[in-house]
Design goal:
Elements: E1 3-7, H1 11-22, E2 26-30, E3 47-48, H2 60-70, H3 77-96, E4 111-112, E5 122-123, H4 129-146, E6 150-153, E7 156-164, E8 167-175, E9 180-185, E10 188-191, H5 212-219, E11 224-225, E12 230-238, E13 243-245, H6 249-252, E14 256-261, E15 264-266, H7 268-273, H8 282-292, E16 296-299, H9 305-311, H10 313-323, E17 332-341, E18 344-346, E19 358-360, E20 365-366, H11 377-395, H12 406-421, H13 428-442, E21 446-447, H14 449-466, H15 477-481, H16 483-499, E22 508-509, E23 523-528, E24 531-536
Parallel strand pairs: 1-2, 1-10, 2-6, 10-19, 18-20, 21-22
Antiparallel strand pairs: 3-5, 4-5, 7-8, 8-9, 11-18, 11-23, 12-13, 12-17, 14-15, 14-16, 16-17, 23-24
Helix pairs in contact: 1-4, 1-11, 2-3, 3-11, 5-16, 13-14, 13-16, 14-16
Bound molecules: flavin-adenine dinucleotide.
Length: about 550
């Protein structure tokens, strides 16, 4: 039986685990926390698919076209075609597994409007789509667990990949329960560790998504792609712990953005783009909001209490609970925040990385979204990517998993010992806070070469002290050892952003405000002997 190691148990990891188990493979699904705590459960608005209940005129071709143009023509056409063609079947599969979609009285899945889409095609479960999908997938994973095909392991933090002779044969983890490094070998390894939110401190996402895995793999020879494309969600509200998302569903239901001037409202998105202005792609809305230089509000009061409570109950609760705002009577003060990462681990269409038998899926992989993601396409990509990787693994060759990893375990133990003994004056939290400040200031909605260079210099300094960092040994070991991987990813991101001397999608350069044909390709970054090297993927290396 082929052995598969999947790291990360959000929607992508679960989808891949179930798909591998369906194909009679033996899966070990590893994560520090249960799936119910993965960022996937936060997904609110929905998942895109052209279904029977969709709007008249919509088609799979139109879903493909919207996705490619939302991504500003740098997402691979073949990959996007596969994604959109398989979307209807994915929604049916999720429904069959028990996902409770919101339906019409006749049982047809309802759809709502989301930004950048020509038709309503976002299927949803109230405003808790992610939670419903995770619940259904966990139940299915448990069924396979009962059959011995899936084994779930918790408290395991990724440390490094076991790459021998250019082939991935497993990974080293830090087992936080036993307090020691542990290796797991497999024929194929799938990375499903989510986005890179923690680089920015407070975002709409989970701090579990810190990008360490991508950063560490990068130093082990894995290429990364399109890191400069970071989606700011236009409508969020700040709370003590994080930025809370006001789902795009509010604008999908007719919500209007405005600011106040001389006592009257300026509906700046509608003034500029007409009737559908509030539902322009997220990068456009966020940039327009930033340009106003004012507090922007989102008004949905006109929908009336009955409809608000029926269609947007979670948004109502959230605003009431965290900010004391009654959205039936008051507008919501909103601000753009970091939300989604189009960039990540570079993968081919079958989700394999440049290292044999190492795959990446879900938000940690960069493939379907180009320069900007359409809302509702990432849950779809997480489920679909898991299935595609499972099919590729089924066809791949088995490898010798009887490898010697004693040196890898010893190296991990040494690193932790050194951290515990450090007398440095810099603490992990201090550097992480500094990093978040740097990323917000220098890699915001509007960027310039000067700011990006300042960011690179700052992160280079943080990196110079990261390995000697002082960390409180009462905290998880992961917190200490992950810092240098996180910083490496941050530096690579800033370098990618500096190398793209144009504006495209979510990447806007005040010193290069125009889109340029010469940059119509993905940015790839690799790590050679401590040097970061970027190149445009003009040959379509990752598009087959
Ligand atoms: C507030 C919010 C709302 C959203 N709404 C929508 C929506 O309506 N529609 C849509 O399409 N998308 C939405 N998204 C995006 C979407 O939720 C994510 O892109 C998607 O769920 C990512 O799934 P994933 O499985 O790749 O990652 P995650 O769900 O983030 O799972 C990552 C897994 O990796 C594990 N992990 C992380 N680091 C390590 C490590 N070092 N070692 C071991 N394991 C690790 C985590 O514990 C977790 O199990 C939303 C995102 C947010 C933040």
């Amino acid at each position: 039986m082929k052995k598969v190691l999947i790291i990360g148990s959000g929607i992508a990891g679960l989808s891949c685990a179930i798909s591998c188990a369906e194909k009679n493979m033996e899966v070990t699904l590893v994560s520090p926390f249960p799936s119910e705590r993965a960022q996937s459960v936060l997904a609110a608005g929905g998942i895109n698919a052209v279904t029977d209940s969709g709007e008249v005129g919509d088609s799979i071709e139109c879903h493909i076209k919207d996705t490619l143009s939302g991504g500003c023509d740098i997402a691979g056409k073949e990959a996007v075609t596969g994604l959109c063609e398989n979307a209807p079947e994915i929604v049916r599969w999720l429904e069959k597994l028990g996902t409770v979609f919101t339906t019409d009285p006749d049982g047809k899945v309802r759809v709502r409007a989301f930004g950048g889409q020509s038709y309503k095609r976002t299927c949803y479960c109230g405003a808790s789509t992610g939670k419903q999908i995770v619940t259904a997938l966990v139940m299915e994973a448990r069924r396979y667990e009962g059959m011995g095909r899936i084994k779930r392991r918790l408290w395991m933090d990724f440390y490094s990949a076991l790459i021998k002779d250019g082939v991935c044969r497993g990974a080293v983890f830090y087992n936080e329960a036993t307090n020691s490094p542990e290796a797991i070998t497999a024929d194929s390894v799938v990375i499903a560790t989510g986005g890179q939110n923690a680089l920015f401190g407070k975002t709409t996402g989970s701090t579990q998504c810190d990008g360490y895995t991508a950063g560490k793999l990068f130093t082990q020879g894995v290429e990364l792609k399109n890191l400069e494309f970071i989606q700011y969600h236009p409508t969020t509200i700040e709370t003590a712990q994080k930025m809370m998302l006001i789902s795009e569903a509010v604008r999908g239901e007719g919500g209007r953005l405005y600011y106040e001037e001389n006592g009257s409202r300026v509906y700046f998105m509608e003034d500029r783009f007409g009737e559908r202005g509030n539902l322009m792609p997220r990068d456009v809305v966020s940039r327009c909001m930033e340009e106003t230089g004012r507090q922007v509000f989102l008004d949905i009061t006109f929908l009336g209490k009955e409809k608000i409570l029926k269609k947007l109950p979670e948004v109502y609760e959230l605003c009431k609970k965290y900010r004391g705002i009654d959205i039936c009577k008051q507008s919501i003060p909103v601000t753009p925040s970091v939300h989604f990462f189009m960039g990540g681990i570079a993968v081919k269409n079958n989700h394999e990385t440049n290292i044999k038998n190492l795959y990446a899926i879900g938000e940690c992989a960069s493939i379907y979204h180009g320069a900007n993601r359409l809302g509702g396409n990432s849950l779809l990509a997480a489920v679909y990517g898991g299935k595609v990787a499972a099919s590729a693994i089924e066809k791949s060759e088995s490898v010798d998993t009887e490898i010697d990893y004693t040196a890898d375990l010893a190296q991990a133990a040494d690193k932790l010992r050194a951290l515990k003994n450090s007398k440095s004056t810099y603490s992990v939290m201090y550097i992480r806070n500094m990093l978040a400040e740097t990323m917000h200031d220098d890699l915001g909605i509007v960027r310039s070469a000067e700011k990006l260079q300042k960011g690179i210099d700052d992160v280079t300094f943080y990196l110079s002290v990261a390995d000697k960092i002082r960390y409180d040994s009462s905290e998880l070991a992961y917190f200490g050892y992950s810092l240098s991987g996180i910083l490496t990813l941050a530096k690579a991101t800033l370098i990618c952003a500096k190398s793209r001397e144009e504006s495209r999608g979510a990447h806007f350069r005040s010193d290069h405000p125009e889109q340029k044909d010469e940059y119509k390709a993905a940015t790839i970054i690799s790590f050679d002997n401590g040097k970061y090297r970027t190149y445009p993927d003009t040959e379509g290396k990752y598009e087959s």
